[in-house]
Amino acid sequence: MLSFLARLGSRLAVIGLMALVAGPALAQSRIKDLVDIEGVRENQLIGYGLVVGLNGTGDTLNNSPFTRQSLQAMLERLGVNTRGVTMRTGNVAAVMVTAKLPPFGTQGTRIDIVVSALGDSKSLKGGTLLVTPLLGADGNVYAVAQGTVAIAGFEAEGQAAKITRGVPTVGRIANGAIIEREIEFVLPRMNSLRLALRNPDLTTARRIAAAINDFVGGPTAEPLDRGTVNVTVPKNFQGNIVRLLTEVEQLRVEPDQTARVVIDEQSGIIVMGRDVRVSTVAVAQGNLTVTVTEGPQVSQPQAFSNGRTVVAPRTQIDVEEDGHKLAVVESGVSLQQLVDGLNALGIGPRDMISILQAIKASGAIQAEIEVM
């Protein structure tokens, strides 16, 4: 019996030790999910084009002079002269075309594009985008787009009713653009890299650098500031920096964060971080309700008198104060205790926002409050 209890106790101790070890690990994140590698990034592309083939839902040429001018210029390039001719077609729409050039996008690779109406077009359904060059921020053409526009919304209209679902003036073309120019970025030749933290924090930057140094076995990474970690490529990874990044991205660290309370007053949403702490403070919340009731009464004169019937106003005012007793929030309580304490007062999100702002104004909450 004693040996059985001893074995049971040892097993429980091992399970408890595993829980202690696995608890913090669950809060750890991969470096891949915390940083962006400088230079490995997307680039925005934009272009102006025409969508044709619309079933009378295109731009009104009299109201959209840019559509008329673009249509005339395109026809002239094809050898058709329309100068001085009144055009009344409603099957053409001017659009803005946007896309994202992925990092290391090679020439000939296809990318998705988004097409958005620029004029007074009602719908782009069934339209075809003509050849449209896509420009980068430097003014160079990096891709060329063309294809059939697919939209998710629709619009139906009758003489007395109209219904619109989604946005029929915005569409998408899968693989609708071909990359024609590559952005030069030679990753294997770099001797150092900079990791940009998505949520800048000094503690997180130091932990990332320490995790990389432990993996490499030397002072390779160094935090430059709260948002940047510089990594010098070790000699054994020279010429094979992709392998280094692959290994570094899988390292796990526990990110730190600033104690912050985010409040959206329009929707009543409150988001509080786990490190929010409150000093000792007493909180009370109450509602004052004033009710005004009008009960007019008819006053009639005595029989055979010379009086007349009148309406006598009667007003009753009731004041009701629905208040709660003071609730004491102890010093250094956790987020869960703070939420439980505020919920115990029986208040809603709107009143909770006011209470949190009042606690912050009193200096009793050690957190940053951000109102959206």
From TrEMBL:
An annotated GO BP = bacterial-type flagellum-dependent cell motility
Recorded GO cellular component terms are: bacterial-type flagellum basal body, distal rod, P ring; outer membrane-bounded periplasmic space
The keyword Repeat is annotated on this UniProt entry: no
What GO MF annotations does this protein's record show? structural molecule activity
Q: Keywords in alphabetical order, please.
A: Bacterial flagellum, Cell projection, Cilium, Flagellum, Periplasm, Signal
Subcellular location, record wording: Bacterial flagellum basal body
HAMAP family in alphabetical order: FlgI (MF_00416)
Q: What is this protein called?
A: Flagellar P-ring protein
Q: What is the lineage of its organism?
A: Bacteria, Pseudomonadati, Pseudomonadota, Alphaproteobacteria, Hyphomicrobiales
